[in-house]
Task: structure prediction
Amino acid sequence: MMRRNFVASMLAALGGCRSRGHGEGAAPTERVAVTFVGWGAPEERVVFAEALAELERQDPRVHVVYTQVPGIGYDYLNKLRLMIVAGLAPDVFYVPDGAFQELVRGGALLDLEPFLRESTLDLGAMWTTAVDRYRFDGERVHVGHLFGLPKDLGPMVLYYNKDLLRRRGVEAPPPTEPLTWDEALAMWRALTFVDRGLMRWGITRFPYDAAIWSSGGEILSADARSWAMTSPVSLGAFQWCADLAIRHRVGPDPARLADVSLGELFEAGLAAMHPDGRWMVPRYRKLAFDWDVALIPVPSRGAPSITRSGSVGLAISARSPHPKEAFSVIEFLAGPRGQAILTGAGFQLPNQRAVARTNVFLQPSKRPAHAEAFVLAAESSRPAATTETPDAFWEEVFSAYADQVWRGERSAAELFPEIAPRINQTIRVAFEEVGLQPRGRSLSQAGWK
Amino acid sequence: MTAVSRFPHERWWAYLFAAPPILGFLVFGLGPLIASFVLSFTRYDVLTPPEPVGFENYRRLFVEDFFIGKTLVNTAFYLLGLPLGMAVSLSIALLLDRVTRFRGFFRTVYFVPAVCSAVALGLLWKWIYRTDYGLLSMALAAIGIEDSPAWLSEPSLVKPSLVLIGIWTNLGYEVVVLLAALKTVPRQLLEAAELDGASGWQRFRHVTFPAITPTLFFISVTGTIAILQSFDQVWVMTRGGPAFASATYMLYIYVTGFQYFRMGYACAMAWLLGLVVLFVTWAQFRLARFWVVES
Amino acid sequence: MRQNALSQVFRYGLLVITALVILLPFAFMVSTSFKSHSEIYEVPFRWIPRRPTLGSYEKALEQANLLRGLFNTLSIAIPSTLGGLLTASFAGFAFAKLRFPGRDQLFALLMSTMMLPAIVTLIPQFLGFARIGWVDTYWQLIVPGAMGTALATFMMRQYFKTIPDEVIEAAALDGANPLQTFAMIILPLAKPALVTLGVFGLKGAWNDYFGPLIYIASPEKMTIQQMIAGTQNAYGGEPGVLMAGATLAMLPLVVLFLFAQRVFVEGISTTGLKG
Result:
């Protein structure tokens, strides 16, 4: 205790003065200015403006100062972390589910439980998997109090090029029932051909986590403390994915992928199918060829299609001077009305199950024609394995080594047991690094009444 | 002669003038140095206050962390490129020293890579090393070798490929330095040796080489320090891949500290690097007595 | 001694080959930058594009915002270099010519910082800057350099030491204070050293990548090096844009070099000799 204070005070002395960030105090009018920062494509800015305007109509206490940072989230996360340290964090900000654990363990997020008790927000109307991602009980994530509200859910589906399928006489996969691996393989074989000197493949790459989970395997142990991909089921599932390119040759030669990304192959019409998330829809709507979506195939008929889904949450800064007003903002944006507005841009599945089933989301006049596949995929989806650990370094290590399996140089059965000790050590270090940290603070702990 | 100040209040003027770097030293040098040392005994994720953990970081560093070993091995490999590059540069410098015309032109051309940034050169060479369409592969295809290797994605090839870039980049700089050094070779000795019937190689070995050893030593010391801290080019070209085959120590520090914000551990890593640099430099100075000729 | 004509030819030949080895990559870069996307992947390879196009440059400058990047880099490079020259000159003068207690010890202390790798101090600097609210700004990159680096101070001191003491004493006798002495007598004499330090300082700031990488987060604030490194993400599949970016990033310094060759060459040659 004494040592910690000594170290902290030494560092405080060396760290210089701290500027205090405040949300602007009560403006000349009664409205409180709540700063809100997110990122996204320019099209999203329009729907956000609409949503926030309606919020301000409904709640006269609040005025939202919304800043949209261009680009993708991870540039912003680094900056957000530093802004939190400097006391300059906005009141409300995006928290991708992959960054949630780190931020909540660091005490950067406000416990929403007290607000939820007095709110009419119906958590039950939201996808359970989306809500649980933002829970933390002081020790583990995905259980406990809510520290963020899901803004959306981004399930993974199989995009397919209808024009190519038609050309090869392949029947389109059903949107509500996943194909089996054998059926899918046969389909991809039919879609792999040489077209005037150009190689066209059936599929870009199969997501290995979906393959493992649908086979009943796991990536991490239940407590997320060790790596579980050395089990026969997981090994087999991963190898099957790699074999698509290596043995069955229905996927691109991994050496080719050094120059061009999987998505680019699909967009260029060089791969007939491509598993990806809902966020690609606005971009794909600009594609010249006709396309649709189906569920990710499963190992055998009747097996559940468990795929990965991404999500971004809305959180309140633990040091926000306006927690009540900030909550009003995220309550609206995560609620049925706000979600209905935000969904219009087409980027994400709303967090509200009911809204997802309406045409606000399904948008039958626009591609994909069978958007219900997203709804079905969402129901049985899981967050990425990296959300279970304090950071994703182990996954980076794994990917670096796994490349050898993707390229057919080693088999998964050979390589994974070899690298397991390293991955386990990396996971262990990740937990050690946060093991001594103070727990996420609830409102009462942080000194608010 | 007593040290009398020439100006009124000379010492105050002096303190004023010297203040900025001294202040800079305290604020950006000594302060952070101490802080970094203290932090290396803590766990610090930036969001919460540092948590002291004794020698745990160092234990992990020396005993457990397999990446440390991997990156140090990689760095040792990269260091091998230094003598190789010096040999090439020396050869070119010797040639250039013997020609009378266009010396400035050649020197200018060779030096161009030295003003370019590691990032820009990294992008360029990544494109040159591109399988099938890069300059190197196409050159090989032109002489009949169709199967171009994956220079940067083959674990066994990536380090030599990067070393090649290093030699290419530093050629001009080393040539300029060596040319200046060659000018200091005593002419009379060379002529005397020639009169005595010494061959070109003998003249080089006994007259030229000893005279330039201080400069070679300088290149060796500064080059080693630079290689031990290299980051930019590898980061831009391979991110340390494939499977950490090209990763440098600095790269690992960057990822640890600035991507995963394990600041305490990153400080420990930084101190280890500092000690390695000091040790290697000291070792080079000690070894110098065996080959560097004091003028 | 008569040179053997054959060996001269041999020598020139090797030197020319070396020159080609140095230049060909740059030619490849420029050639690619002027090719249309499809032509880049055409076989057989042509050095001169069949239909040269500025498309890649347009993309690089506008879409990838490299023009902004060039400007941003100048916003950092110029203040930090100029500031650094000023402070290093004053301090170098003080350490070289003025007398004050603790002068030599302070100087030795200052020089000791050059011993350790930058990374040892960089992490706490980074944390310190964050604590005082300097997040995603240029101050972190300008201030440390502008306050006078140990190396620059060292070099200016070396240079000033070559000025005879009598000059200083004469000025003092004339009643000038150190500031006047510095401004009117010393500084004009220091031009060569200042130019050398200035050129190398600019080069270092222009080519710096690690500093901006850790301190600058907003895409529109990034320096040219950060931006061209970042083009790999958005334009990974378009070598033309990457090469246009690389060319743009290199060009200013190469031009500077061509105009100020002597400064570069002499600056480097002398440090090499000092050993």
